Structures are given as structure tokens and as C-alpha cells.
Amino acid sequence: MRRPMVAARLAAALVCLSVTAYAADAAKPTAPKPTAKAGPVAADVLAAAGPMDWRSPNPENLLYMDLAQGRVIIELAPAFAPAHVDNIRKLVREGWFDGLAVDRVQDNYVTQWGDADNTRTPKTAQTKLAPEFVVRGDAVAKLPFTPLPDRDTYAPEAGYSNGFPAARDAKGREAWLVHCYGMVGVGRDMALDSGSGAELYAVIGQAPRHLDRNITVVGRVLRGMDILSSLPRGTAALGFYDKPEQRIPIAKVRLAADLPPDQRDNLVVLRTDTPTWAAYVEARRNRREDFFPVPAGHVDVCNIPIPVRTAEAKPIQ
């Protein structure tokens, strides 16, 4: 007969505890909302950038991929994947990609192109290469690296190297490019050495950072993401096109260095090692535009678009 009374006392005690806890929480001062420090917005930072804040990519590192939809321009990153970049140059110069096609467009993931039917054999390029997932040793010390002040989910430290989003370990013994939107990687099979650059892909969705250090990343799309991200989605497994006639033909791929200067796209990229870049990062970490009453006070390495413009154009965000 005592159990109902005990239960009632316990219930009353719990109610008291709940009320007390609520009152204690209510008495705590409300944490102030983060506010951005006074400073310029990103567009103003870019408008004030001088000629020394921009760099002209090496023509040996620029790929022009021409589709019926327009031109896609890719900057290669030989500092992170020298063997693959060299092999891609050989493939381009022997006309490997000419007449091939985009054969995979997986929504929110990647657009991929190459020899879908495996009918070609490279003339001078390698068909297999040792993976270049990370840079190690002395090469890491030679890499410029501008770290972000914020913690990264996938790496001890994230930042930018020569205009590419990158990451490195805590002791500076390894560095690698990361899979942000627009980054270009080398397609491979299960074997780690099965990639050569004959199959390439560009990230067209939310950054698949789980691929970092598992696939060789060779560059970044500077212009033409509007083309690659708006192609019809493949309906077969993994976004491949079900029928050959659905594929998007590649007219040709050329290195800018192999074209006369008057046929090149004169692009410049914002440097990632200057005070202007630091101001731009801060303007992206804490958005000061009127639309943002609450700044984030944090930014992800893939959430800072690295500006690209034509050399004659006025800087824009």
C-alpha cells in the first residue's frame, strides 16, 4: 500500500526539480548574438584589390575544353600532382580527348568525361600512375599555405595554396587538395594506380570531402562551371548516361600554351597569400552585407569562392 504514496512523492520531487531547473535556466543571461567587426564587405575588398593581388595562371597549366555548350577552362596543379599533370598534358597534346564525351553527370556529385567505351590507347601517355593523393616530405615545405583560422571537419588544418583549396596534417608532413565545388580529379577503378588522367571529373555539388586523400586531385575549373553543372543528369547507376547518344561530345581540349596569345582567354585569379586575401576571407567569415543580421563567425574551406576574372574586367564578387 506504500507504493502509490512513494510514486506520488517521486512525481512531486521531479516536478520541483523541473521547475527549479527551468527557473535557473531562465535566470541565466542570454548569450549575445555574434556581431561582425566593422570592415568592408567582400565586394568592396575585391573592388579595392590592386594588380599585385591577382595572378595570371601559367598557360602550361590551363586546359581549354570546348563543348557545344561553350568552353570550360581548368587550371592544373602540378605542385600537388606532378606526374598526373604531366600525363594530362601528354594526353591533351596527342589529341586524346578530342571526339570523346562527357559520359556521367550525377546530380549533386560530379560531371565526368573520357573514353567511356575504352576504345582508345594513348600514344605517348601512361595508362597507369602511382597515386598522388597527398604531397609528402620536402615538397610540403615548399608549398605556400595560407591557413584558415577556423577548425576543419576533415583535416587538422585547411586553407589555400597557390589559389587552390587545400589541407595538411598537424605536423606539416602531408598536404593535399580538397574536393570543393569545381575541383577536378582523376577517375580510377579499385586499384589505386588505375588512374592516369584519361578520365577526369569535376565536382558539381556539395563538397564530397570523404574523397580527400582517396583520389588524385589535379586542378580546379576557373570558368565553365555553369556548363558542367547544368548538363542533363544521367539516369543509369551513378549518373552515367544510359545510351551513347545521350553523351555530351567534346570537340577538343587544348593547352593554352599551345595557342597563339590572341586565342587565349586572359584570366586572372585572386592570390591567396596577400593582405587583400586575408580581408576577403574575413569578409566571408563574417558577412557584413545588410542582408545578414547574424554573421557566422566561421567559414569552411569550400565556402570561399576564389575569384576569377578577365584581366580587362572590373573585379566582381
CATH architecture of one domain: Beta Barrel
| Sheet with most strands: strand arrangement | 2-3-13-11-12-5-4-14
> What oligomeric state is this?
single chain
Run of helices and strands = HHEEEHEEEHEEEEEEEHEEHE
SS class: alpha+beta
The name CATH uses for the topology of one domain is Cyclophilin
The average pLDDT value, as a whole number, equals: 90
Q: Can you offer a commentary on this structure?
A:
This protein has 317 residues and is α+β, with helices and mostly antiparallel strands. It has a domain at 58-255: Cyclophilin-like (Cyclophilin, Beta Barrel), CATH 2.40.100. The protein contains six helices and 16 strands. The strands form three sheets. An eight-stranded antiparallel β-barrel has the order 2-3-13-11-12-5-4-14. Strand 8 (157-161) and strand 9 (164-168) form a beta hairpin. It comes from Nitrospirillum amazonense. GO terms for molecular function: peptidyl-prolyl cis-trans isomerase activity. Residues 70-255 form the PPIase cyclophilin-type domain.
Task: Write the topology of this structure.
Layout: H1 3-27, H2 42-48, E1 54-55, E2 62-67, E3 70-76, H3 82-93, E4 101-106, E5 110-114, E6 135-136, H4 138-142, E7 146-147, E8 157-161, E9 164-168, E10 174-177, E11 183-186, E12 200-203, E13 217-223, H5 225-228, E14 248-255, E15 267-270, H6 275-285, E16 308-310
Antiparallel strand pairs: 1-15, 2-3, 2-14, 3-13, 4-5, 4-14, 5-12, 6-10, 7-8, 8-9, 9-10, 11-12, 11-13, 15-16
